Amino acid sequence: MLRPEHELFHKPFPVAFTIENTPTPDNFKKWKPTVGDTVPTFKVFGSYDEKTDEPGLVTSDMGFENVPDAERILGGINMKGPEYAAIARHGSFVMFGFHGLPDRFTDEGRKLYLNTLSYAVAHKAALVESLRLRPSRTDLLETLTTFMALYPEAEHMRVVERGYAGEPIPAAVLTDPAAAQKWYAERAPFLHPADDGANWSTSYQLATDAQCKEIGLANDSIVFLDALAARLAKDAHDPLANALLARYVPEVEPSQFGAWLKENRDKLYFTETGGWVWRVKGKPVKSPVLRNATPAAADDPVTVKAETKDTTLVITLRVRDGWHVYSPKTTEGKPVSVAIAEGSAFEATGAPEFEDDDAGTLSGYVEVKLPIRRVAKGDALIVDVTYTVCDAKACKPTKTVRLSR
User: Measuring CA to CA, which residue among 196, 194, 207 is closest to residue 309?
Assistant: First the structure.
């Protein structure tokens, strides 16, 4: 991927690169069989030693430009595919993925790097309006058309089930490309994540949204919103419209939806990777990560973080080697507890879930999941995580960490 007309190649320093026709890497052909026998390239670094130099970074093209103010500018020879970007921008963040020592830059590469810095400064105040948190429709399509072919036939069902759930996969989808395309096309307008992403083993699964299919309109089309508004205008308590509105436009109250749609119609966009929701352009994204408001001591053997999914609060504790905390299963110490504090717009709907051993001890990377639901407007969430950390000899005083947003 090379966009020579982009301003990055022209200012403040003109990048007079010479195009070379480089033999297409085998992995490019696997990802995109139509790519051709050569790809246009130019040298950013004059030399590269596979034994001592670290590889650079690229970002996936899947869903990247389907959000406001995101662009892929330049690719590079990489282990992924020809559409992956080594230089890309999203709001105020610009990625320069090429990696090497400065003295190895070619003249063109040095100017490109300086232009990238200038480009980042020029977009310093730009908003990041969406984060890439969930899989997109393109992920499933690529699974069917590209990824599945990279595995032995016996593995095809497992590969597809990693990206789709909720119904049996017809055998023809695994062996017939035309049948796979037809199967996908019938479901594509109504796809939605199978769960909220809290479980890593199912976080990439999509499923058919039966309620969306009942409406009969694609969830990423403006006519879908028009249909919801019409149903609510006829019956403000319409159960189907209210359920779909809570899923796809969660920040808007049903009683205000009609006016909201009329006011923001020309500024609306649908983001799949950002959560499969409709948003208004011009608003910064709300991070799912909670802030840690409790000062950490330098010798504290535990680091606590948390983030929210749709219906799950995920708390992670990093416990230093030689130390451990306890789960409710223990009979030896005080277990980790999680409490949602007053002033939050959410409440717990069940007990915390732990992945612990039979003795109820937790060490290393600890993940605790708390099911939650919204009970008030806004996104305020205040969480207290209390734990006692011990080593083989003694325990430190019980500590409570407050995380919030």
Answer: 196
pLDDT at 381 (0 to 100): 92
| Tokens matching residue 303 | 């680091």
Q: What are phi and psi of 214, to 5 degrees?
A: -65, -35
280 near 267, Cβ under 8 Å?
Answer: yes
* Cα 129 → chain centroid: 13
pLDDT digits (tens, 9 = 90+) for 222-276: 999 999 999 999 999 999 999 999 999 988 989 999 999 999 999 999 999 889 9
- Helix 156-163 to helix 137-145 angle, to the nearest 10 degrees? 170
Give the 3-state DSSP-derived string for the chain, with helices as H, strands as E and coil as C.
CECCCCHHHCCCCCCCCCCEEEECCHHHHHHCHHHCCEEEECCCECCCCCCCCCCCCCECCCCCCCCCCEEEEECCCCCCCCCCECEEEECCEEEECCCCCHHHECHHHHHHHHHHHHHHHHCCCCCCCCCCCCCCHHHHHHHHHCHHHHCCHHHHHHHHHHHECCCCCCHHHHHCHHHHHHHHHHHHHHEEECCCCCCCCCCCCEEECHHHHHHCCCCCCHHHHHHHHHHHHHCCCCHHHHHHHHHHCCCCCHHHHHHHHHHHHHHEEEECCCCCEEEECCCCCCCCECEECCCCCCCCCEEEEEEECCCEEEEEEEECCCCEEECCCCCCCCCCEEEECCCCCEEECCCCEECCCCCCEECEEEEEEEEEEECCCCCCCEEEEEECCECCCCECCCEEEEEEC
Decide: pTM greater than 0.85.
no
Contact between 88 and 245 under an 8 Å Cβ cutoff? The reply is: no
* Token digits of residue 305: 């973080």
C-alpha to C-alpha distance for 166 and 272, rounded to whole angstroms: 19
* Token digits of residue 335: 């277990």
Query: How far is the CA of 200 from the CAs of 28, 44, 96, 134, 312, in angstroms?
Result: 27, 37, 29, 11, 13
**Phi/psi at 130 (nearest 5 deg)?**
-155, 140
Distance of alpha carbon 90 from alpha carbon 136, whole angstroms: 17
